[in-house]
Amino acid sequence: MGISELLYILPTNEADQTPATDAHIECRNCGTNLKPDLETCPDCGGNPAVYEIS
For a 10 Å CB count at each end of the chain, is N or C smaller? Predict the structure, then answer.
């Protein structure tokens, strides 16, 4: 599952269909903060984890 698929399931602002700003994305393996457009970690090649902050 790529990051674009993960972001699809996050709550969105229905007016402009952008991902919610209350989300944090980091590498599952090393914990590096990742940008939303990355599908793998540039440091270790790990998969992104998306956390919704409430």
Answer: C
Cα 37 versus chain centre, distance: 8
Task: Answer for the pair 30, 41: CB distance below 8 angstroms, yes or no.
Answer: yes
First to last CA, the chain: 24
Q: How many domains does the chain have?
A: 1
| CA-based nearest residue to 31, from 19, 49, 52 | 49
User: Looking at the domain assignment, is residue 33 inside a domain?
Assistant: yes
Positions of E strands within 1-54 = 12-13, 18-19, 23-27, 48-52
7 vs 18: CA distance, rounded Å? 9
Range of the domain at 28: 20-53
Q: Is the pTM of this model over 0.70?
A: no
